[in-house]
Every structure is written in structure tokens, then in C-alpha cells.
Amino acid sequence: MKQRLSKQLLQKYQQGMCSAEEMAYVESWYNQLSKTNNAKDIPELDLAAEDRYFQQHIFGPELRANRHRRAYLKVAASIVFFLMAGAAMYFFSGRQRSPQPLPFSVGQFQADLLIGNEVVSLDEKKPFSPAWMEQRKGDQVAIKTKKGQEFKMELPDGTTVWLNAASKLEIGPGYNVEERAVFLEGEAYFKVAKNKAKPFIVHVGKTSIEALGTAFNVKLYPNDSQLLTTQLDEGKIRVSNAGLQEILLPGQIIQLNVMNGDFQLQQENKQQDAANWKDGYFEFDQTPLPEILADLARWYNFTYSLSPVYKNKVLSGKISKKESFAEVLKILRFAGINYTIDKDRLLLVP
């Protein structure tokens, strides 16, 4: 049955009685609504405008024909206040840490800056500043994203980094002195500023990736896969592991098994760009369902279990990362994949 936002559903949410799927639906609506109100204080909310939004985008003709319009408006206002107050509690209770994303909600542009013993929450309004490294020379600096977060930053040398969800980038205290070394856990895309005198090196476990001036993607989530994947878009990079080296040219991808050190070099799949995540899309081309779920779970912040029946299933397609999780569920259902939801866990069962 198609989910609908109703007075009863909003009341269930306030009482903490919603299922995970219902929570995802309500919070998807709220995320859309809050985009137009994120600059307002709670007392200044235009309730008439919110009511119009309800009629035009949520309830449609059914509500416009309903005589109990004011009752719905009161519930709408209360849920906005309730959710905004909850968001404020999340933000201020973490000693400047970024708020923990809610399960099944659309990811946000956020990260935590770890500098010395301090933690600073970063977002679009408070970006990473290389000046912090200048002021705190000698301190270890790291930028960390949780599940449901990603971040873009510029390093002191002009290199741009896109950090994907559930990832961490450490920047050594001697960065940009003799060399430019960073240490990655998870996934990141690098557009490296040219400087032949100071090589740019990404360390991922026991593997190092060296570049001069180039753009490339690096991915390794050890809990999901033992394959380190690097895709080169521009320039040239050298991938080294346990004495073995491989040179990549534009349009090439290398997969390195971090357990046995095996290299596999292949041409880039023109139908699937591994770095599209930084541009706001998931893109899959005959991609195994376990790999798809791992990417979705990091962005929408959920856990999952997968029936063996589906482990060999592959899917193709492209979807915006701004879509609600409810839309993702529709796609799974359309692809013939059955599911149930238990709290923050997605169960895929036939």
C-alpha cells in the first residue's frame, strides 16, 4: 500500500510508535520542508505557508476537500517544532561534534574535524580551513565522516578532497613541507594540485598511491570488501604494495586484494563512473546487490541482512542521493526484491 502522510501518522511519530519505514517517510517530508525553513527560528515559521505545502505536496486533493483543515495544520506545526527541537538537541549535546544522522534519512554535507584533542563540527556554513593547520602546527589533523555524511574540503596546497560517508582522512603534521602525505580509511576523491617537488601520496593500509598532478578515486571499506579500488581520471599515479608496483593511466582502474597483494588492471566502465558519488549520484552497472547495499547503507545510515537468494543478483541504474529512502525501497520492490524493516535494519528476504 502506498504510504500517505496523515494526522494519525504524525501523531504516531510524536509518540515514538512509528515503524522504521514510517519514520523514513515522515523524516523525508521534514527534510524537504526544512530546506525552505532552515534560516528561520521556530517562532517565525509561516504556518500558512506550511499548510499550503501540506496541501500541494503531501495531502493533495484529499486534504483540500477536507473540512478539518485546521486540525491538520496544528499537527503539522507541532511536528515541525518537535523535529526542529530534536535537531537542536542533537547538535548541542555533542560538544561540537556533528549530529548523528537518523536511520534511513538522506545523508548530509557534514564532518568532524579532529585536531589535537579538540573536535569541531564542519558543514557548508563552517567549512574546513587550512588556517587551522597553520595555527596548530605539530598537531595531528583528521577529518571524519559518519554514516549518512560526506564532505568536501581544500587542503593547504590547493588539493581538493571529497570524503565519502563513513570515512576518515588523516593529514600528517609535516604536510606540504617535503611531501604531501595523507592517510585514508574508506573512500575519497582527490583532485591534486600540481607540485613535482612535493609528491602527493595517499596511504591506505599497507598500500600507497603516489601522484604529481592528477584526479583519482580511492575506495577501501575493509568490513565490506578486501578489494582496494582506484580509478584514475587525469594524469598518472603509481600504486605500490609489498614491493609490487603498477602505473595507472587515465581511464584505467586497478583492484588490489589487500589480503594477498594481487593486482588486477582494467579499463574504466564507460557506463559506470566510480566517482559519481561526489557529484550526488549512485550509479550501478550490473553491480552485485551486496555492493549496492553497502553503498546505500553508508549514505542512508542503516544496517541490513541479505538472504543468500539475492547474493548473486545484479542491478543497473542511476539514482540521485537526494532521493528519500522511501524512493529507494520502491526501486528495490520494482526490481523484484522483497524486504521488511525492523527498527534501523533492512531485511531482504524472498
Automatic annotation (TrEMBL):
State the Pfam families in the record: FecR (PF04773), FecR_C (PF16344)
Record keyword Cell membrane present: no
**Parts of the chain that traverse the membrane:** 71-92
What UniProt keywords are attached to this protein's entry? Membrane, Transmembrane, Transmembrane helix
- Positions of the Protein FecR C-terminal domain: 281-346
Which stretches make up the FecR protein domain? 143-232
Q: Which InterPro entries match?
A: FecR (IPR006860), FecR_C (IPR032508), Ferrdict_sens_TM (IPR012373)
**Record's PANTHER family?**
PERIPLASMIC SIGNAL SENSOR AND SIGMA FACTOR ACTIVATOR FECR-RELATED, PROTEIN FECR
Q: What is this protein called?
A: FecR family protein
